[in-house]
Specification:
Strands 1, 2, 3, 4, 5, 6, 7 and 8 form an eight-stranded mixed sheet that branches. This protein has helices at about 5-20, 25-45, 50-55, 70-75, 180-200, 200-210, 225-235; strands at about 55-65, 65-70, 85-90, 95, 105-115, 125-135, 140-150, 160-165, 210-215, 225, 240-250, 255-265, 275-285, 290-300. The two termini are about 40 Å apart. The chain is built from seven helices and 14 strands.
């Protein structure tokens, strides 16, 4: 077992303290949070490769920079010849789960520290976003993972985990299949793009996100709530459009996600895009027949990758 650094031990004590404060979480969400924490502990103790192989689903993806099957990519790489000089650790502080308890997500800060110099500031820090799905054996596995870097650590203390606001809404159209729900989520993304072209990006986002939505952009601290998102998007008029690639949903049809390609152009007559990349959106049924995006994260592609067909 890898020897834990002083900073890792301190963070572990903070996480245990936060865990002691948590009360009233649904048992299914509590099990998801513990799976995320076990994932982080394994990363510290055994390293990134072993932990990702252990906790990612067979079809789980991350972005390198294109959507990539995580386990297949790692299996093609030889095990490291020597222990990594750095440690990747993280802590979930917010998340949600479907009524059926089969699909959920977690998010929170991550940090990379130098094992031999734990007193130094983290080499890198940011926010992770992981979507989890319960497997046939009853265990949780990551099906999608994407994160952002932040200009500074968000906090010196790990807060206790907070579950998303719970709503009790039964999906309309009880005879609709799960596949129909997946298609419906893809249509929400397409409708967003049409709204952005017709009314502008700010109006399109405000029309599809929840009041307490989260928006993650690389190099920025997380934007929390509709007011913060509106202020950010209003700074510079840009046209944000997307091309959905895949979706999935809970069997209870109250929580789901989409991901795909996005493109940003000026809202004027500028014909050339200023940014391309991939987005992930988490959708939640908040009222009968009313889905809202509760979290969106993007990862920009380097310009030399714009012509890729992946």
């Amino acid at each position: 077992m890898k020897r834990l650094s002083l900073s890792s031990l301190l963070v572990s004590s903070l996480i245990l303290s936060a865990l002691a404060q948590e009360k009233g979480l649904p048992s299914s969400l509590a099990s998801l949070v513990e799976s995320e924490r076990a994932f982080a502990r394994t990363s510290v103790e055994k390293g990134v490769r072993d932990s990702f192989l252990m906790f990612f689903a067979d079809d789980g993806i991350n972005f390198r920079p294109h959507p990539t099957n995580t386990r297949e990519a790692l299996m093609k790489l030889p095990p490291p010849a020597s222990p990594s000089p750095n440690t990747l650790n993280w802590a979930p502080i917010f998340g949600d789960i479907s009524r059926a308890g089969d699909l959920g997500y977690t998010t929170g800060p991550y940090w990379i520290t130098e094992i031999r110099a734990p007193e130094k500031p983290p080499l890198q820090h940011g926010y992770f976003f992981s979507i989890w799905k319960k497997q046939a054996q009853g265990d949780w596995k990551v099906v999608l993972d994407l994160g952002i870097s932040t200009p500074a650590p968000t906090t010196s203390k790990i807060p206790s985990f907070q579950g998303a606001r719970q709503v009790s809404v039964a999906p309309s159209g009880a005879s609709d299949s799960l596949e129909a729900q997946r298609r419906s989520l893809l249509e929400l993304d397409r409708s967003f793009s049409e709204a952005a072209k017709a009314r502008g990006t700010v109006s399109a986002f405000l029309g599809c996100i929840s009041d307490d939505a989260r928006m993650y952009r690389n190099g920025l601290l997380p934007l929390l709530g509709k007011g913060a998102i509106r202020a950010f998007l209003s700074q510079k008029p840009l046209l944000f459009t997307c091309e959905p690639l895949k979706s999935d949903a809970s069997i209870s049809r109250d929580l789901g996600y989409t991901y795909g390609k996005y493109e940003i152009k000026g809202e004027t007559s500028t014909p050339q895009p200023v940014e391309k990349g991939y987005y992930v959106r988490m959708w939640k049924l908040i009222e009968p027949g009313k889905w809202r995006a509760v979290l969106e994260v993007t990862t920009a592609l380097p310009a030399e990758s714009w012509g890729s067909n992946q």
